[in-house]
Amino acid sequence: MTEQTRAGFVALIGEPNAGKSTLLNRMVGAKVSIVTHKVQTTRARIRGVCMAGQAQIVFVDTPGLFRPRRRLDRAMVAAAWGGASDADVVVLLIEAHRGISEGVKTILDALKERVGQHPVALAINKIDKVKAETLLALAEQMNGLYPFARTFMISAERGHGVDDLRDWLAGELPEGPWFYPEDQIADLPMRVIAAEVTREKLTLRLHEELPYQLTVETEKWEDRADGSTRIDQLIYVSRDGHKGIVLGHGGETIKSVSMEARKELTEFLGRPVHLFLQVKVRPNWENEAERYSEMGLEFKDGN
After folding, report:
1. Which string of DSSP letters, residue by residue, matches 101-154?
2. Strands 55-61 vs 46-52: parallel, antiparallel or unpaired
3. How far apart are CA 214 and CA 238, in angstroms?
4. Which of 61, 64, 131 has its CA nearest to residue 99?
5. What is the DSSP string of 157-172?
6. The predicted structure's pLDDT at residue 125
């Protein structure tokens, strides 16, 4: 008798910058979600597929939960809770050194209303930043506020405790056939992943100059007969002044971003990549339904 296969969805939720994307990439073993030091870099509900024995864990990497102000913010928070509500298991990720913030308390209150009977695990991340007694006290406090099924001490960046979390998740999933082929790591179209790679490089390069006033769209994708791929992308910014920032003096910034993104895409795709970037001013892109659809978010009428 062969072991029964299992498959299910796991939602990673938490405050912005808690390490959800880093944990997803560590679990999957490949970079499918962009990771920066800026909050709110995850816009789309990216699914990464992780194989654990006979279990297929499909991760829903949700935007960080925060107090929404703009239309885009509200769409991101709605996507996060949608991912949690639809999942078989939920993992709440918190940072060890930040403790129980007001944001974490708000998430705990919402969990009681939105998640229902799904098991919820607590993953305390960045454990190398605090002492053992502080960790134990934090775990005890958190479990007093919510009935977590399990608590894990992890370092998503270093990999500590991640295997234990993965194995537990695999055992919690329902029995059934796999959703995806064994060698598939994400269900996002490659065009979207390529756009996310470029957006990450822009975010890292521009730091505080252009936090979230840009988006990237893959306009054309051509797999050539010589085995290479040509990718044409549009970078949308909100103002004329932003275009100059993205281009940089003498085009230095855009050249550097293109080189870094091309290098990563070449490695990811396993073939030569020719990347062409163009910057366009689109003042109202944050209020265009098409942009939301590309990011996997729901566009709602109203401000």
Report:
1. -HHHHHHHHHHHHHSTTS-EEEEEE-GGGS-HHHHHHHHHHHHHHS--SEEEE-
2. antiparallel
3. 7
4. 131
5. TTTBTHHHHHHHHHHH
6. 95
Domain co-membership, 29 together with 110: yes
pLDDT band at 75 (very low <50, low <70, confident <90, very high): low
Residue 293 pLDDT class (50, 70, 90 cuts): low
Same domain flag for 228 and 97: no
Q: Tokens in use for 1? A: 């008798």
Which domain, by its residues, includes 266?
190-294
Same domain, 58 and 162: yes
Amino acid at 186: A
Total domains in the fold of the chain = 2
- Of 146, 172, 198, the position where a domain reaches its end is 172
Please tell me the least confidently modeled range out of 68-82, 89-103, 172-186, 253-267.
68-82
pLDDT in tens, 142-185: 999 999 999 999 999 899 999 999 999 999 999 999 887 776 66
Q: What is the pTM of this model?
A: 0.60
Q: Are 172 and 90 spatial neighbours (Cβ–Cβ below 8 Å)?
A: no
Asked if residue 48 lies in contact with residue 21, where contact means CB atoms within 8 angstroms, the answer is no
Residues 62 and 129 in one domain: yes
Tell me: do 202 and 60 sit in the same domain: no
In-domain check, residue 150 = yes
